[in-house]
Each structure stands twice: as structure tokens, then as C-alpha cells.
Amino acid sequence: MKKVDLKVFGKARSYPSGPNPVIYLSHGFLSNSNNMAPCAALLQQVLPGATVHRFSYDWKQTVLRSGAELANLVFNDQGEQRPIYLVGHSMGGLVSRVANAILSNPADFSALIPFLSSFDYQDDVNWLKAFTFGMKASRRINGLVTLATPNSGAIMQGQVSSYMTLVHWAVNQVTSLQHPSVQDLTTDRLFRLLQSFGTSTPTLSISGSRMNRFSVGSGHILRATGKLGLNLTLPHDSLVEDVSVDLTKSILPNELTFHGDAPYVHLRAYENCTDVTHTSIHQNRVVADYIADFVTRT
């Protein structure tokens, strides 16, 4: 396999020379921090001087709340000023994006809190005010990595705006999925909110294979809606992995590649392979090697 050259991020530096990175790992949907243990172990192997934290959050709550919790954790880290990296798997990548926006622009985020009802986040207003982000100085994030992250929403959204309402309705017929986080994955509210920011954080997004667990779920959705007399066409998996994950092809302009000036690379873990699935991408050595290469350059 020919590896993608990450020279856009700069010349590689050898580690452990100079400050060693602090890496915050965020797990995905229907998961917890234990799921990121293999990723943490791999990163410790390829970056032995790194300090790796597995961030734990409630996947049921809004991505906005989870991102604020991660940002607050980083703000409260009073250790030496070491390079900071945010790495998120699946929905955890969205959590990391929110945290990055807050850390880079705490005053701007604080000023936006009173107006969150216009983004349908009215239930989070008082909770977010308690963090007093407006009183904090910005923190530089040296790099952001998203792994199989639905940066334009999950496949259940259909990636086509005309299907948003229908699929959101279908998903919410399943009681187990009636959580605020699902709304972030199946509507555009989170992505409209992130449009309010611009950052310069170097960013790497990595896709898995053409097969992922969302594709399996799409079959169930098609059958269920068919029984209701609804004709719904969902896209091929590759559209989700290559388009939804790729920030340069996002449905709405984003805070990184559109409103920001961040150097950015999107790549597949393996160009022609179906072994790296959505649920295993963060446990793959090649992926860890890419992250390490990224860290040495940023």
C-alpha cells in the first residue's frame, strides 16, 4: 500500500525531541471511553512520549454539550504548555470539532450561547453558561483528527436535504435512538452552528472501507419505510465514507476548510480494502501510523 504524503502539514520532526504531545481521544455513538483503549495503546507505541487521555462523555446528550465538556477539560489542564491534539472516532470526531471551535474562540462561543435557541439548542443554554468560557483565554490546538466521522451527518440523513425530515422521523420511531445526539447526526443543526466559527487548526480526516455499520442499518430503514408505503433511496456506502467524512465536500460550509484557513488532508486508511470498517478504524495500526506522522508535522 502506498501511503499518502502528509507534507502539506510541514516537515516531519523526530520525537521525542522537544515537548511531547497530549492527545485527547473521543469515542463514538453507542460507545464509551473503553472503546478507545486499543487506539490509546497503538498511539503510545508509535508516540512513546505522548500522554493519551480517553475522554468519557454521555453519547446520548447533544454533541454540543459533549464538545463543551471536552473543551472545559482541556481548559482546566494546568500542565505545561505541550502540543495538544484532539482525535475523535465517528461521532467523537464531531465532539472534537465542537471542542476545537470553543478552545480556539471561547469569547465568540460564549457570546453565541444566548442565541442557541435559533439553532434548536435551547435546552443547553443555561448548562453551557456555567462553563464561563467567555472568561477563558483561547488554547491552541496543534491538530485535529477525525476517524470515519460523519462530518455532514450520518447515512441515516441520506446526505440529501430532501430526505432529512423523513429519515429523522423514521429513526426516531426507534425508542432506543430517541436521544438529542441523534438529532445532531440526522439534521443540520450542529453544522449550521459550526458555521459561526472559523479556525486554523491543522486537520486530518480518515475514512475506513466501503462497508460500515451505517450501511447495515440503512437496509432496515428501507424495509421499514417501504412497509409504510414510503419510497426512500439511500446512497451507496462510498458516498458516506468518502463524501460525508471529507470536510471539503461537506453539505454546508464548515469552520475548518471553508470559514477557516486550516491545512487539511482527507484520505482512506486503505485505498482498495474492505477490512477497515467504521467500527474498527480506530483499532488499526496503519491509522495510528498516519496519526503519528500527522503529529510529527504539526
The averaged pLDDT comes out at 82
Determine and state the CATH class: Alpha Beta
Number of helices: 11
Q: Characterize the biggest β-sheet.
A: 6 strands, parallel
By DSSP, the count of extended strands is: 6
How does this model look, in words?
The radius of gyration is 18 Å and the shape is globular. Strands 2-1-3-4-5-6 form a 6-stranded parallel sheet, sandwiched between helices. Mean pLDDT is 82; it is low at 155-166, 211-218 and 230-240. It has a single domain (7-152, 190-213, 236-297), classed as Rossmann fold. The protein is 36% helix and 10% strand. The chain is an alpha/beta fold and 298 residues long. The protein is built from 11 helices and 6 strands. Helix 3 crosses helix 4. It has helices at 37-46, 63-75, 91-104, 106-112, 125-129, 164-171, 180-186, 189-194, 213-227, 237-244, 285-297, and strands at 22-26, 51-55, 84-89, 143-147, 203-207, 264-268.
Secondary-structure map:
Elements: E1 22-26, H1 37-46, E2 51-55, H2 63-75, E3 84-89, H3 91-104, H4 106-112, H5 125-129, E4 143-147, H6 164-171, H7 180-186, H8 189-194, E5 203-207, H9 213-227, H10 237-244, E6 264-268, H11 285-297
Parallel strand pairs: 1-2, 1-3, 3-4, 4-5, 5-6
Quick tags:
Rossmann fold; 298 residues; alpha/beta; 6 strands; six-stranded parallel β-sheet
In a nutshell, what does this entry contain?
By secondary structure, the protein is of the alpha/beta class.
